[in-house]
Amino acid sequence: MKAFKSSILLALLVSPSLIAGQVTFSGTGRVASEPDYIELSITVASECYKTPSAARVQTDLRVSKIVEMLKSKINVAAGSRDAVLTSGGYSSPFSKTVYDTNSARHTVCEGTYQKNTLVTLKTTNVANFAADFDDIQEKVLNEFQSAPSDSNDKPVTYVSIGTPQPQLFHETTAKAEKTALALALQDATAKFEATFGACAITSYRLASYTDGTEQAHAKSYAPEAAHFAGRASATPVDFDDLWTRQTLQVKFEFEGGHCTVPSHK
Known about the structure:
The chain contains 4 helices and 11 strands, in the order H-E-E-H-E-E-E-H-E-E-H-E-E-E-E. By secondary structure, the protein is of the alpha+beta class. It has 2 domains: 112 residues, 2-Layer Sandwich (Translation Initiation Factor IF3), CATH 3.30.110; 131 residues, 2-Layer Sandwich (Alpha-Beta Plaits). Strands 2, 3, 4, 5, 6 and 7 form a 6-stranded antiparallel sheet that branches. Strands 1-11-8 form a 3-stranded antiparallel sheet. Strands 9-10 form a two-stranded antiparallel sheet. Strand 9 and strand 10 form a beta hairpin.
């Protein structure tokens, strides 16, 4: 990135001669990128089981089925960046607080155990993800959850699906930042030339600039689709582009001209 910035500086240098004034303009460059891949998180949680092994077995059973189902939807060829990853700890003690119809507080499931495991899907099949996501939600709801419980103190295993997140690979982000930087410098230079175009400036050069990069951020039009035991909500999935933006404060030094120099633009 430093080498790239230096090349832009050299390209903008004009014969420095005597400096007649300085002025600073802001410049902004924005670059839109289509997502490289989609990341989806699914959490499997078993709670209120009498033994650590019971909580572990119930969670691991569903995790294995979910992993198998997700792997059927990704590219498993050598060199593919698609993946299904799991992470989770050991079974741990569990209890929870509930409220009755009179708003009285009670602690239930004391002396029981829980286990949570996170399953993460990374798929580059962005174009067909909406259809895959519908199938994932249907299978999770209908096949991988325990039946709804009529009591707060009975064992239950539920699955929650996070909001799908569009992502960029590192090299895509780096390329977008480089392009956004060039556009920001062009924007600041265009503002300078538009302001002083009629001022008989004989020469100018870019003296210095400061920059700040905003990381690419995702805009997803799908509210969180969460599935719990006996309850579900789901919405269609669509994705906007990911944006990378560079904002610069660029100082120009110039000579000649007969206009009043603004302090900042």
